[in-house]
Amino acid sequence: MTDVLLQMTDIQKSFPGVHALDNACLEVKKGEVHGLVGENGAGKSTLMKILTGIYKRDSGSIKFRGKEIHVNNTRESQQLGIGIIHQEINLMPHLTVAENIFIGKEPMKGLFLDKKKANDDAKKMLNALNIDIDPAIPTGQLTVAKQQMVEIVKALSYDSELLVMDEPTSSLTENEIEELFKIIRNLKARGHGIIYISHRLDELPIITDRVTVMRDGQYVGTVETAKVTKSEIISMMVGRTIYEEPKVKSTVPADAPIVLEARHLCGNNVKDVSFCLHKGEILGFAGLIGAGRTETMRALFGADPLDSGEIIVNAEPITVKSPNDAISHGIGYLSEDRKGFGLAIGLAVRDNSVMANLDAFLKGPFTNDPKIDRTTIDYVEKINIKTPSVSQLVVNLSGGNQQKIVVAKWLIRNSDVLIFDEPTRGIDVGAKQEIYKLMNELVAEGKSIIMISSELPELLRMSDRIIVMCEGCITGEMNIEDATQEKIMTLATSKM
Amino acid sequence: MEKNKKFNFTKILAPIVLVLLYLFFSIFGRNFFSDDYLINILDGSYYIGFMAIGVTFVIITGGIDLSLGTTMMCAALLGGAAFNSWHWPMIWCLLLVVFVATAIGFLNGVLVAYLNLPPFIATLGTQMMGMGFGAILTRVQTMRYPTFGTPEGWFKNFFYKTTAGFPVGIFWLFGFFLIALILLSKTKFGRYTFAIGSNREAARLSGIKINPWLTGVYTFCGFCCGLAGIFYAAVYTSIIPSTGNGMELLGIAGVVIGGTSMAGGTGTLVGTLIGVYIMSVLKQGLMSMGLQSHWQTFFTGVVVIGAVLLDQYRLKQGAKVKK
């Protein structure tokens, strides 16, 4: 029973400007649950997308059941017997369980759909896994956990021998996870191979047989789960070379006043979050995707509703009901999704730069265009935005320069507290350095910065203090002197 | 660089089409190149022009207003009722026209901004409500505005044409066009109109209070429909209940022909005005060639599709350059 089901070796994949996978390897045996772990951006998803035909590999070999395979799309991989269950549910909520399972391959009776057969077959498949769901009800009425089980059955309906599960437990409760594990063990006993991707390292010893660790697109190693500890896995995950010298000591004086304090913030994926920010400080927020960092900042900024909690700016409690409230108290938010939330990319540089502070650029009822241009040019020069002119459309600028325009927007608004959410995402290396330099200049001028980043070296280089979040809660806080990648990763993967 | 070239090309394309059309009909139409036809072209453009100016703002926010035509007619009917049945002085009747249309625009704004209805649905609803309301209030009687020479007929001389026959309406339309131009390009209102249409979420996260501004845009569009109503009454005198349906499409067509994208975030009033006159020239030109109104409708449709195809082509070119 130890025959190999899937063998991926030396997979290479490059995107323009990024070497996403470099000699990635993965081996899954029949009847094995194989964990696949790594930090955000380690290449897990890319590897799975290559396996299921969403991306094409540049080189390397994939052997499935001993035969070299070349899949061009998900349909082909399904037909070969490789199924994937994505983190987000991909069911059509208005269709019934049976209709979802048999979508694209509906049982027919002549010209018409055979509903009865579909329901009966679905029932059989559900029963085989001891899942108690009525195949005739719309999937939208099921809990997330039940929907996920439908997804599993749907994947199995293609006779999948290999199932990829991407973060299957991320939105399940304790009991539901137990249910899922039962199903996984059941599948395992029937000889299916399962690739289990998870950020929850604590789950690995419970459910997996072996674990493969990836880092920066490279294969780090495969270990038998029973023989390693969590901290050994973590050190495999984070052992990445740090190109940047980490900050050794905080540059914030011990008596720096607190400019912003959050007390017991609660909201969507924000659970009793409290922290404070000092003047001139860069406060790093670490955590994995879904840790609630962005949600916390959006709630603080008034972009999403806050259920409860207090926000104190310069020792005065403030009420934040909309972004406008937060902005008027000197808070600026630089979204991780610049194009979605940060910029009106179809408009000119000068339209974006004054968008948050147009009132200061009015002369009577009219906009003071010369003043807008002058100020924008000042900031273009000050923070070195490379644009042919201030009337250039933002869409034509590079990611780094777009980010700087968002920075300029908040500087023109005189914001004292800047929240940088993944400030260097999608920005090339040179531009990253410029953003770092800019952030250091800003704090030197007395601004205070909250930086959310998923890149640990970046956090260690920039922050004076680091707060770690996991699943909506703060799981730790440390001064930069004490911070290490291992410590952060341990806190980021430990559920409270 | 290439993108800018293309953009400029489409910018001047609409005026070129307008001039070519005028030349074409001057050569092939009977008596087209004459004062009479020119005045006809102008007369037919006033009410469409005002509606189109208003809805340009709405379309730049990424919305749509389907209630233009019936809002205009409903307001004009009420004004007519005030004149005929309640014997109000003309000036108050005209103010009532503007007030009613502005109120409907405000309602559109509240439905779209505060109650989050899709603009298509909200204004489809008010379109029908306006049409019904006008008919109910006038008991389906045609409302006649005063004619030239009657005591209250001054308003025709004032808004439409002088006793000597000079089309003063053109000054009103162009005057208002200039005001709207300044409003769109030189005020906070205009800036936020673009910002909301270009990226509503980014605008909100920049502290712009979306709802009041968006309501303002629809209210302004309603106000424009009110002005359109006055000019419709001044030119055509009789307002028939349960009409106006379909006229909104003329206004929207003008905007689209003028190169404003339905996706929002971009658009020009100059283009809109040219779009309106392309339709007007087309209508009178086809008439001068002896082709009746069905042909006008047909060709207006052709022009609309051509304009949008061009818009898409331009966007595609833009996307290519981006990569």
From TrEMBL, chain A:
Molecular-function GO terms, alphabetical: ATP binding; ATP hydrolysis activity
Domain of life: Bacteria
Membrane topology: Peripheral membrane protein
Main location: membrane
Cell compartment(s), UniProt: Cell membrane
This protein's record includes keyword Nucleotide-binding: yes
UniProt keyword annotations, A-Z: ATP-binding, Cell membrane, Membrane, Nucleotide-binding, Repeat, Sugar transport, Translocase, Transport
Chain ranges of the ABC transporter domain: 6-241, 254-496
Keyword DNA damage recorded: no
Gene3D superfamilies on file: P-loop containing nucleotide triphosphate hydrolases
GO cellular component terms attached to this protein's record: plasma membrane
Name of the featured protein: Monosaccharide ABC transporter ATP-binding protein, CUT2 family
Organism: Flexilinea flocculi
Lineage, highest ranks first: Bacteria, Bacillati, Chloroflexota, Anaerolineae, Anaerolineales
